[in-house]
Write a structure and sequence with these properties.
Layout: E1 10-15, H1 17-28, H2 38-42, H3 44-52, H4 60-80, E2 86-92, E3 95-102, E4 106-112, H5 119-122, H6 124-137, E5 141-148, E6 157-165, H7 168-188, E7 227-231, H8 233-247, H9 256-260, H10 262-270, H11 277-298, E8 305-312, E9 315-322, E10 325-331, H12 343-346, H13 348-360, E11 365-371, E12 381-388, H14 391-406
Parallel strand pairs: 4-5, 10-11
Antiparallel strand pairs: 1-12, 2-3, 3-4, 5-6, 6-7, 8-9, 9-10, 11-12
């Protein structure tokens, strides 16, 4: 059966160094916050240097971990709660914060390489942050939910910790004291009165400019005797069940992605998935990372990215353009970059999606941005500009697939979603014709 974009339809694949450099520079640059936040007060020394030394760039490896955390928070929060309770803004005593989930009590989500056995001793910053949120929200108790990332062959895991605080006013007093020291350091351009941050000696991004070596030790917002921490397995199980139910909710609207991965689209609607909680959490981790990555790239150049709503028969979607060129962003866990001449054969489904979006907006050029998270500290991005022909073939094949969807055809009537190796990792492999 035909692909949406046959390799013969690709006239050229050029590596665009100009755009690549602009994207990397954009995602490394961080805007300066003007207000004092709870996050600033968890490690004020690091926060001071992040504001006063914009020339210090965060390595892509570190940004990668940040994207994983940010994206997981967003997707996991949407899975287990509703919009009205997500990322709730709070303000008190000149300090602002954003609580991940706040319905009856504050819930702070964290991603980590391990689950702590003793939250207060091993992750005191988590408790300090939650304590300030509880003070600002006038709640005597909250929860920290820690997600252990799937990496290096380790399964993902989730645990919830309930934390009760005995003295909110004491927490408020320490928050205000730390706020005043932080503002004074910024005003005097002198961090000498700030306490050493918890990242001292742990490959801090600002170790070349900071004064932590001579700074006094960091005092915690919460003393050990002022908080009661207990694991809450029931809450963890409830959150995992909510995440599972959210992902398995059926959707009958046919999408552009269904036209690129038609067999998967059919099986999603007919047999569902039977994988376990770990697979659900890992999906949220990977999806969250990709979501945060694409957001970082999209906002790296103000005004460069635009979205165009499209209608294709009964399909509705959005085509993103970068500098007026249809652009698809993808990541892959391969340990070396894919040679550009091999892209149509090893990642033909990327090219199919790009060709379809380009055809829908009438463009003969498409841009593919590829991020390689498993590469070392060097280059992780590649940007390719593809010259494309065969627009009518692409649209005709998409219409054929759409007609099969609407006729409720079985998976065997559609082409494979990708190369043979993909079926080994497909969540529907036991029911799919690819096997």
């Amino acid at each position: 059966m035909a692909a949406l974009c046959e390799p013969s339809f690709i006239r050229r694949i050029d590596a665009n160094r100009t755009v690549k450099d602009a994207l990397e520079a954009g995602i490394r640059n961080r805007g300066t916050r003007q207000r004092v936040s709870v996050t600033d007060l968890v490690n004020p020394m690091q926060a001071y240097h992040s504001r006063t030394h914009p020339e210090v760039t965060i390595p892509l490896d570190r940004l990668q971990l940040m994207w994983t955390g940010t994206g997981f928070h967003r997707l996991f929060g949407a899975a287990v709660s509703t919009e009205e309770f997500l990322e709730q803004f709070v303000e008190r005593d000149g300090v602002v914060g954003k609580i991940d989930i706040f319905e009856d009590f504050p819930i702070e989500l964290k991603t980590s390489a391990s689950l702590p056995e003793d939250l207060l001793a091993q992750r005191p910053a988590y408790v300090d942050q939650l304590a300030m949120y509880c003070y600002m929200a006038e709640r005597r108790a909250g929860a920290v939910v820690v997600y252990r990332r799937e990496e290096f062959g380790r399964d993902p895991a989730l645990m919830a910790y309930r934390v009760a605080f005995h003295d909110l006013e004491k927490i408020g007093a320490r928050m205000r004291e730390r706020r005043d020291l932080f503002l004074d350091a910024l005003a005097r351009h002198d961090p000498s009165r700030l306490e050493r941050c918890e990242w001292f000696g742990r490959r801090c991004d600002y170790e070349s400019v900071c004064s932590c070596a001579s700074a006094p030790p960091l005092r915690r917002i919460v003393d050990a005797e002022d908080a009661l921490v207990s694991e809450d397995q029931a809450m963890a199980d409830e959150l995992k069940e909510a995440a599972r139910s959210w992902r398995q909710r059926p959707t009958w609207a046919i999408t552009l992605n269904d036209l690129v991965f038609p067999r998967r689209g059919v099986l999603f609607r007919t047999v569902g998935r039977t994988d376990d909680d770990d697979d659900n959490l890992a999906d949220l981790q990977h999806g969250g990372f990709f979501s945060a990555l694409t957001e970082a790239i999209r906002y790296s150049e103000p005004g460069a990215y635009k979205g165009t709503s499209i209608s294709f028969e009964t399909v509705r979607g959005v085509v993103r353009t970068h500098r007026a060129v249809p652009t698809v962003i993808r990541s892959t866990n391969t340990r070396e970059m894919i040679e550009r001449d091999r892209l149509p054969f090893e990642r033909g489904y990327w090219i199919d999606r790009l060709a379809l979006e380009s055809a829908l907006v009438g463009s003969d050029v498409g841009r593919l941005v590829v991020y390689y998270p498993r590469l070392g500290a060097g280059d992780k991005f590649m940007v390719y500009d593809l010259g494309l022909v065969g627009r009518e073939h692409t649209l005709a094949e998409a219409r054929r697939r759409l007609a099969l969807f609407e006729a409720q055809a079985g998976p065997a009537e559609f082409p494979q979603c990708g190369p043979d190796w993909m079926s080994l990792y497909c969540p529907y492999k036991d029911a799919c014709a690819c096997q």
